[in-house]
Amino acid sequence: MNRIQLIGRLGRDPEGGHSGSGRYAHFSLATHEHWFDKGSGQRVEHTEWHHLVCHDRLAQIALDFLSKGSEVYAEGRQRSVRWTDREGREQRSTQVRVHELRMLRHAPRTDPLVIAAKGIATVERLLVDLAVGLSPEVTLAELAAMLNLIRSNLTSAEEGAQEGETTPPSDAA
Fold this sequence. Notes:
This protein is an alpha+beta fold. The chain folds into 2 domains: 1-107, CATH 2.40.50.140; 111-166, no CATH class. It has helices at 56-65, 112-131, 140-162, and strands at 4-10, 15-19, 22-36, 43-55, 71-84, 90-105. The chain has a 5-stranded mixed beta barrel. Helix 1 runs antiparallel to helix 2 and helix 2 (112-131) packs antiparallel against helix 3. The longest helix has 23 residues, at 140-162. The protein is globular. The two termini are 27 Å apart. Mean pLDDT is 82; it is low at 165-173.
């Protein structure tokens, strides 16, 4: 079985575009672990970087909702990719092809109104695609969940501003 589950923070804003097979997005994800060395008793920390790629609806959501520092849960399959670079050398890398993506927390210092505007634009685009038959994989329940996340983020940000917080509170997706 080839299944990877990761929880980590984005190392950069997602990048993407359109290819012959549809919309895509890619970004780096850092996972962090620590343990105590048995010999020295010292705490040892390690950060592992993963290259994630998602397509179609998940790509659009990643591009619209995620930014550097966002904490996400991602599930997918690991793939080795080979290509020839500009100098003619054979290159190889490993990537995670994401099939499930959930935002756990926004990046610190992210303006909740900007995130809400991007989220509403995504939902609007998905509704139009659904109406004309371009996104049959999107369900109304998923769209309702997206709107609920946008609303809860705005509500949390408003409550935080009233309490004098300088950074938006975390939210659960």
